[in-house]
Design brief:
About 0% of the residues lie in helices and about 45% in strands. It contains no helices and 14 strands. It is mostly beta strands. It has a seven-stranded antiparallel sheet with strand order 1-11-8-13-6-5-4, with no helix packed on it. A three-stranded antiparallel sheet has the order 10-9-12, with no helix packed on it. It has one domain: Sandwich (Jelly Rolls), CATH 2.60.120.
Amino acid sequence: MLNKYIWTVPLCLFASFGVIAAEAGQGGNAPKVITPGELPFVQVSEGVRLKELTGRAAPDGAKSKLGSVALFELDPGHASARSHNKAGEESFFILEGHGEVWTGGVAHPVGPGDYILIPPAVVRSIRASKGEVLKFYAITTPAWSKDDDVLVPAPKGAPGS
């Protein structure tokens, strides 16, 4: 059951909405502060966009194979593609808006402050409620890779169908 993986956590976890990453080329021990507002969005699909703060496709000085953090925005009523990671564990930390995380054909309502842990091989999708944008961080360990991500067709009624 996914319910055992949904917790509410304090917003202070990401209070500054900045991410500190090790600066490449300086022995890995010089921090780099990344401010999401300074990065451009990448359009993933209609109504779904992201900013990769750290990970394989992150800005210089924030690249990592160990983990990735992406800031997602979903327009009202839009959803991420249904997929699962072969080996990676993924977490969502909801910042703003409401929506639902779909796993195993079941919708789990989520809102600000909710933290969702998704083990490897669990098919999931996240959808914004109608009428409001859903903003959340997606954290993946090891870092997200298209080779680890498996797209899955959506059944009738699920996001992406």
